[in-house]
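User: What would this chain look like folded?
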Amino acid sequence: MVRRSLLFTPGDRPAMLRKAPSSGADVLVFDLEDAVAPAAKDRGRDAVHEVLADPAFDPDAEVCLRVNPTGIAADDDLAGVLGPDVRLDSVMLPKVERADDVETLGRLLDEHGWSLPVIALVETAAGVLHAEAIAAADGTDALFFGAEDLTADVGATRTPAGDEVAYARQHVVLAAAAAGVDAIDTVFVDIEDVEGLRADARKAVQLGYDGKPAIHPSQVAPINEAFVPDAEALRWARAVLDAEAAAIAADRGVFTVDGEMIDAPLLRRARRLVERAEAADVR
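Assistant: Here's the prediction, encoded as structure tokens.
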């Protein structure tokens, strides 16, 4: 599963929900949290359910529901959206501060007869400090770093350079890597600054992130492009996978590519690069 780009769409805007697949995003996030006013939550749940239960809605993308933080509101979201004919692939949980939050959501899903992977949004000081436990929790499939809420939580000033979130940004991707789950980078809020977005997405790739959110459809293409490996990286990745296949056929446990011993982390990197290239139809 490739998650280069995650497009957020307000849950109370049915026309936008139906149009979201045309963006080319790998993940469509139907948002019932920040994007929907408190008075419009029920309307949003109804709208999301109607779209997801429509047999004509069958996008070639992961469909994710962002619920409200764990508790009554999250349970209300699930009760209002889930149903026998609903197309849903994952759930995003905001304000995750400990592994118990993910496990509680898992129990709520189970009560509704569902089992779905959880994208845990780490966006507070407590969440970042407990990122390793959150990533390792049963049900967690990805960690999502939220820099905007984090800076508000700690009283920091958000800057273009991002020094105030540099430690947290790297800590989250390390926690995700250690647990073997995806790492999703923070949002880039300036919709008009396309070059700034490209640079920020390239930085996310450099740090080891697997994807980045888009808050507008226009951000999807630049994000996807940033996560497509260049020709040399793709050549290396394919050589690694070919060498692995040859080693397995020859019953060899150790092999090298370009003089480099290939271990499990490098194999994971090679597979990830090939998956990204295939998602972009790069041969």
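Residues 3 and 211 are 5 Å apart (CA to CA). If you want, I can go into more detail on any region.
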